[in-house]
Amino acid sequence: MKPWMIYGANGYTGRLIAEAAAAAGLRPLLAGRNRETVGPLAQRLGLEKRIFPLLGQRSIATSLEGVGLLLNCAGPFSATAAPLLEACLADGTHYLDISGEIDSFAHCHAQHERAQEVGIVVLPGVGFDVVPSDCVALMLKHALPRADELILAIEGGGGMSPGTARTSLEGARSGGRARVRGQLQRVPLAWKTRSFTRASQTRQAVTIPWGDLHTAWVSTGIANIETYMVLPPRAIATLKRMRWLRPLLGFKPVTRYLLARIERGVPGPDAEARARSRSHVWGEARSADGRVARIELDAPNGYALTVAAALAIVQRMLQQPPAPGYWTPAQWLGAEFVLSLPGVHRVETQTSMT
């Protein structure tokens, strides 16, 4: 069997996945552009390494020679998904990533026919972005087949990694999104707010441009989708103020300054923080006849869930991949897949009339 590769293994989440893979007896190739960080990690875990930047399609394709499956953990995926996927299409390598970025999902989806032609699977979003929310969306579709509105909300817990912070900055530059009558629409940052209940406590949430605006639409066909994230009130207020600051994010000096601040000040949650925090997913579907279905999931910390989901999907891919082409996690593995992951359980399911 051809080996598989983790690109971006030196990043926060890539390192967690590499460590868990090695502990499970898996033998991925570790790859990235930074020899000073990839090399020591590979040596510590007793794994092989490949060092290459994403410069030039021919060079990237050469670096993927002999690799059967690539798991891309290097964000922001707006910069890495397209060149790595193009190389996978050239080399016949299955492509997976842990993206949560709408445009990255759309780009991967657009390569469906090409992937079928060359015989590879394209399966982005195999982590907390978007496995639990994608599965909840499909559960709701099964519970309410005629649903025409879908709301998904997440609470990650434990803090952000540098990669997540960089991706959030990219998202802020693009503004808000929602799916309206089947089409992605631009909306203001922090377009809407609403509350959700967890363990009898109210959580405030705000709309964010989450990847489910593409993946949940593909998985369910529901035409109207909004995605929310639970945040502290001060963070929600900051997002609203950023509506007026968005033009500044287009200036490279401002972006470089903010990225430098992220690198210095966002280390990511440590093992203790990951262990003591949990994540939560709410889903709500509505149909035109007034029926409402609701589902809640409780799960481990978002980064812990990403490690578990990504490795479970990689192992299934190595054993028996689906038919070539683009897939969402729930499309291939089914709505109940998330419940097979350690520590994930359904809190509540309701179907009622409004």
Would you kindly provide a written description of the structure presented here, covering whatever features stand out?
This protein has helices at residues 12-23, 35-45, 57-63, 77-91, 102-110, 112-118, 131-143, 162-174, 212-220, 233-245, 252-265, 271-276, 302-319, 329-333; strands at 4-7, 29-32, 49-51, 69-72, 94-97, 121-123, 147-155, 176-180, 183-187, 193-198, 201-207, 224-230, 278-287, 291-300, 325-326, 345-353. The protein starts with a strand and ends with a strand. The chain contains 14 helices and 16 strands. The mean pLDDT is 89. It has a seven-stranded parallel sheet with strand order 3-2-1-4-5-6-15, sandwiched between helices. A seven-stranded mixed sheet has the order 10-11-12-7-13-14-16. It folds into two domains: 4-128 and 305-333, NAD(P)-binding Rossmann-like Domain (Rossmann fold, 3-Layer(aba) Sandwich), CATH 3.40.50; 131-301 and 337-353, Dihydrodipicolinate Reductase, domain 2. The chain is globular and about 55 Å long. The protein has 354 residues and is an alpha/beta fold.
